[in-house]
Every structure is written in C-alpha cells, then in structure tokens.
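Is this the right way to post structure tokens for a design question? Let me know if I should format differently. Anyway, here goes:
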C-alpha cells in the first residue's frame, strides 16, 4: 500500500477485505480479509501503475484501491475454482 505504514496497511487490509467480502457476497474470516485487502491493494496498484494511472496518495484512496483489488481477486478465484456441486 502506497504511503501507509505496516500497521495501517493491516487495518486498511482488514477493512478493504471485509468491504470486498460484502460486495462479492463471500464468506471469509478476518485473516483472509486482511490478506485479500493487502494483496488486492498491491495487485491493483501494480495494474494502475502499468496503465500509467497513479491514484492520489492517502489512506482513503488506498482503501478504495484495496477494495477494488480484493474484489478482483475474489472474482478471479471464483473464475479459476469454478462452481462447486454440493
């Protein structure tokens, strides 16, 4: 995450992961939410930089980027995993 410390990255990751979980109607735990939020932020920041788009600094923008990245990761996971037959 750009411009935030490690402690704030964990907090933002948890918040972003939880928001993404609610948007994507997923059921994950706290640890997975933190991981999704942090990794989602890293992935989305990488994608944005590759496209030449640099979002403004600050924790609000990084939270938005993290939520978008976490949603993307959940979508890709579902795409790869496919639907389970119960």
């Amino acid at each position: 995450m750009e411009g935030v410390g490690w402690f704030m990255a964990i907090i933002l990751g948890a918040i972003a992961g939880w928001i993404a979980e609610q948007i994507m109607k997923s059921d994950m735990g706290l640890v997975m939410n933190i991981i999704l939020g942090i990794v989602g932020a890293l992935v989305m920041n990488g994608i944005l930089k590759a496209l030449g788009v640099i979002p403004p600094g600050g924790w609000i923008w990084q939270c938005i980027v993290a939520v978008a990245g976490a949603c993307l990761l959940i979508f890709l996971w579902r795409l790869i995993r496919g639907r389970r037959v119960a």
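Format looks fine. Someone answered above. Worth noting: The chain has one domain: 6-81. The radius of gyration is 13 Å.
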